[in-house]
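Below is the record:
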Amino acid sequence: MDRYTDGNAAASESTRVNAQLEADLKQQPMDEHLRRSFQLKTAKALQAKERLRAEEALMLAEAKRRNASLPTPRAESLVLTPKAEKFRDALTAALAEFPYVTGIRIGELSSRIAMIKSYEGVWDVIDGVLSRRGAVLIERSKIASGFGLNPTNHWGEVKAEIRRILLPRANQLLQLASVRRLLDEALARGEKVLVCNGVVFWYEEHGQVGWQVKTTGGSQTEDKNTLWLEGTIVSANHGRLVILPFIKENGEHVKGHTRNAPKDGPAKPRHPSQYVEIPFTRLNDDLMVGLFGELPYE
């Protein structure tokens, strides 16, 4: 296992190694259908990791933005257990960047320890070596706690709730003149569905609804399928979730569709004459991050 102390260095090296492995695979003597199978599976795995990385980076940026006005806790105001008392100053320094978290690591990388805050607001030290699970929960706290959610809950449900929290903010994007310009230009090109990192700008002709915001729902990559970027979406209802087209492991191409989330109840059906089948355009994920701060499109 390769180990890195810097995330950017690890990502850069993985990009280099993956490119080399991809080139090597093209040169390996094997049946073409087997080569294609390997290529599809690796593309699926990389796509899943990148989708999760981009989505959680966006959620982390928004969590920090929402809590930017929180003051850094003063050292004397922190409540610690007796055994954690000697880490008061280190904890204060660590909380300067994430004052809202319920779990955090402190100290140098070689001797780093973890601390967690109880429901009563008391900080304590985690005894022993921090497990992988514990390290993951501390990282998730940087996101979940920023929205007032519990990082120890089912992570898929936590992120689904964050998407619901962010949807009204995404709807505000439709009021920005720069976004309206982007959408008008897309419509002039005949593009009626724009997908960007979990947010879907959807143009509805019937009833003169115009542009509205939906969210992408479900993850085909988590179900051992891979997204099909050239596919189309068939909408037989007015669901708020858009399931993007995907390719099953057996190579079958499945068209996208719309539906509601499990707790939303059934989506209002369309009349068969109003069924919509349209392609979608995938926007650069960096654009969506920018929309929550400075807008690169401007």
